[in-house]
Write a structure and sequence with these properties.
The complex is a heterodimer of chains A (112) and B (112).
Chain A: E1 4-7, E2 10-13, E3 19-25, E4 31-37, E5 43-49, E6 56-57, E7 64-68, E8 74-78, E9 87-95, E10 100-103, E11 107-111
Parallel strand pairs in A: 2-11
Antiparallel strand pairs in A: 1-3, 3-8, 4-5, 4-9, 5-6, 7-8, 9-10, 9-11
Chain B: E1 9-13, E2 18-23, E3 32-38, E4 45-50, E5 53-56, E6 61-64, E7 70-75, E8 84-91, E9 106-111
Classes of the chains: A mainly beta (112), B mainly beta (112).
């Protein structure tokens, strides 16, 4: 039972480069989320997807794009990475029946 | 969206009971209150959830007064392994509602 799987776990980028963070869940959940967590700080919502085919902005969407490819997968793309996007990124999916969020292990991104 | 306020940090000693209070003055009728625990370099994990009065599970209790404008997470007899950041999350989970915003969390340090 994998739960929420994120790839890659670590990534170093140069300013201006692009990359995509992948997230997949095997729990048949409708809602999925992307959060970022800066060192010593709380989680901030970037984007979320309430169901397949829909996405909505969270607190800090600037500089990011998302794709809900299917019910399982929700990807986060940085088109032109900036040092301010250095952070740990967490993907989560929501069990609506219980209200419990299930988180992945995180993707640690450094932008030089 | 219900905004939450928690103490930034708390200290305790092993074997003591710890109570962490969260303020959520504009909680909506359909909102539930959920608490998460996060260890360094890991995603948050669910601890307990409630709507009103008191909820208890094998690791914690959650007290919610009648006006629901605050909630208190109670951890009985803490140990060193309870050192973590605790987040209070308020939101509804049905339908298309999905904008789940975390507060800044409370860093609990348990000392021997």
């Amino acid at each position: 039972n994998a739960g929420v799987t994120q790839t890659p776990k670590f990534q170093v980028l140069k300013t201006g480069q692009s990359m995509t963070l992948q997230c997949a869940q095997d729990m048949n959940h409708n809602s999925m989320y992307w959060y970022r967590q800066d060192p010593g700080m709380g989680l901030r919502l970037i984007y979320y997807s309430a169901s397949e085919g829909t996405t909505d902005k969270g607190e800090v969407p600037n500089g990011y794009n998302v794709s809900r490819l299917n019910k399982r997968e929700f990807s986060l793309r940085l088109e032109s990475a900036a040092p301010s996007q250095t952070s740990v990124y967490f993907c989560a999916s929501l069990d609506r029946a219980t209200g419990e969020l299930f988180f992945g292990e995180g993707s640690r991104l450094t932008v030089l | 969206l219900a905004k939450t306020t928690q103490p930034i940090s708390m200290d305790s000693y092993e074997g003591q009971e710890v109570n962490i209070t969260c303020s959520h003055n504009n909680i909506a009728t359909n909102d539930y209150i959920t608490w998460y625990q996060q260890f360094p370099s890991q995603g948050p994990r669910f601890i307990i959830q409630g709507y009103k009065t008191k909820v208890t599970n094998e690791v914690a209790s959650l007290f919610i007064p009648a006006d629901r404008k605050s909630s208190t997470l109670s951890l009985p007899r803490v140990s060193l392994s309870d050192t973590a950041v605790y987040y209070c999350l308020v939101g509804s989970y049905g339908g298309s509602q999905g904008n789940l915003i975390f507060g800044k969390g409370t860093k609990l340090s348990v000392k021997p």
